[in-house]
Each structure stands twice: as C-alpha cells, then as structure tokens.
From TrEMBL:
InterPro entries membership: ATPase_NBD (IPR043129), Euk-type_GlcNAc_Kinase (IPR052519)
CDD domains found in the cross-reference section: ASKHA_NBD_PG1100-like
Gene3D superfamilies: 1.10.720.160, 3.30.420.40
Domain of life: Bacteria
Designated name of the protein: BadF-type ATPase
Length: 279
C-alpha cells in the first residue's frame, strides 16, 4: 500500500493506492504547506483531519506547494514520519506532480495554471529547467490570481464596457474601497483576486473578457514557456483549474504562438496514480 498526497495551501488530496490490485481510497484534509507551516502545525492538521484507519504504508509520495528546498522538505518529512509508519517518504514539489501526471516518463513541457502559475522542462525523469514564476506581484502570468487582478483593475479604471462593470457590481455587491482593502490589507490577496475568475467564466461570451484571458495566456507562453529551448518541438501540457476551465482559449493561444497543445487536465491525482502504479 502506498500513499500519494497532492497538497496546496488550501487543501490536500490523499490517495491510498493498492499497487497490486489498483484499488484506491481518497481523503481530503486542510492544506499542508511547509513553507508557511512548522512541524507542530502540520502534525496537528493530520491528527485532526486524517480520518483514515490506515496509517502504515510502504511509501509515501508527498507533492506539495512550498516544497522547494531540502530544509523545507525535511519539515514535512519529519511531521509525516511522526504521524505515519512508512519505509520511505518522498517529498517533492507540486511542479513535479504536474510533470509526473502530465508527462509520465516522456519528455515534455509541464505547466500549472491555477491560483498561481509555473512551468518546467521535464526530460522524462527530472525537471531540467524552470523559469521562476516570481509569484503574484512580479509574475504568475496566466494564473487565476493575475487574471482576477487584471479584471479588478480594469473594472476600477473603467477599461471595460459599462454593461460589464454594472454586471460585476450587481453580482458582488462590493465597491472600490472593499476591493482595495482585500488586496492591500488582507492575507492571501492572490486567492481573493483568483476568485473573480468565476465571473469571467460565467460571462466569457463578452469579447472583452475573453480577450483578457487570451492576453494573459499569451503573456504566460511568451514570458515562461517560450524560454525553454525545446518549447517549439515538444507538446505543452497543463494542469489546473484555470487551464481546464479556459482550455479552448488556451489551445487557441498555443496554436497562435506556434506551440503544440498537449494534455490539459484539471487535477493531477489520476495521472499520479497511473505514474506510481507503473513504478
């Protein structure tokens, strides 16, 4: 029995996989991000949320946002070791989860378009190149956070047609002061901004909103994907809610930029199950 975790700051999806029979059992807990959480906080989350009877595993594969270096990964490993019994615990990034789920053992470009964005060149076994996403302020092009941020700016600066602006304020019952307070004074402004992509998705028939998404995807490709030497030769794969919900616009952007569309999936877990079942 192995345990696979796909973890972000908001939630963690756990899959207990019987590699011999292929049987799976899923659990969800609050997010575990060792970049922001210490050993005790992670352990408390597991003790309160992990309700599965199974605690003993051959191997645990933990893919997490924030798992970016040895010291941070060790924090997660020690907390998992206190809660579970496992012969081996492997800690790696959510970007590696994308690469394993999308590419398996094949060469490709793997991208994440969710609340944030990221990308890499994966050589079939490891991530060989990564253009730093730089986060919500300096980068994260094409992400829900940046698309939402652009929408809010265009609404408040009256850069969108008046009927869209009126529809926005009728939908959310908010005003400029409240929006600015959330962006500049409250925690997780990226999550707040990303939440407004639902408005865009529901009203994507408006040309101005469609163009906002298209421009954001063009920026992601040009500032990230096209920096990889083999970007023009390999399929460009995507995982994440933004890629999934706006996949037709994403495919259009890829083709216009002379790139080859690859897989577009919402959730990496099915691909991770397939990858680890084969190993």
């Amino acid at each position: 029995m192995i345990l696979i975790a796909d973890s972000g700051s908001t939630k963690t999806t756990w899959c207990m996989l019987n590699a011999k029979t292929g049987e799976t059992e899923y659990l969800k807990t609050r997010g575990i991000n060792p970049y922001y959480q210490d050993h005790d906080t992670i352990l408390k989350t597991l003790e309160e949320d992990f309700t599965g009877a199974q605690r003993q595993f051959e191997t645990i594969y933990f893919y997490g946002a924030g798992c970016a270096n040895t010291e941070i990964n060790q924090t997660a490993r020690e907390a998992l070791s206190c809660f579970f019994q496992a012969k081996q615990i492997e800690i790696t990034s959510d970007l590696m989860a994308a690469a394993h789920a999308l590419c398996g053992e094949e060469e490709g470009i793997a991208c994440i378009l969710g609340t944030g964005s990221n990308s890499c060149y994966y050589d079939g076994s490891k991530i060989s190149a990564n253009v730093s996403p730089l986060g919500f302020i300096l980068g994260d092009e094409g992400s829900g956070a940046v698309i939402g941020k652009k929408l809010l700016a265009d609404i408040l600066k009256k850069q969108l047609p008046q009927d869209i602006i009126e529809l926005f304020f009728n939908t959310y019952k908010t005003d400029a002061a409240q929006i600015l307070h959330h962006i500049y004074k409250q925690p997780f402004p990226n999550r707040y901004a990303a939440g407004f992509t639902h408005f865009i998705s529901e009203h994507i028939s408006y040309p101005a909103l469609r163009q906002l998404v298209k421009t954001s995807f063009d920026e992601f490709l040009k500032r990230n994907v096209m920096q990889y030497e083999k970007a023009g030769q390999l399929p460009i794969h995507f995982v994440g809610s933004i890629a999934w919900h706006f996949k037709e616009i994403l495919k259009e952007s890829l083709i216009e930029n002379n790139l080859k569309p690859g897989k577009i999936i919402k959730d990496p877990m099915p691909g991770l199950i397939k990858y680890h079942s084969n190993h």
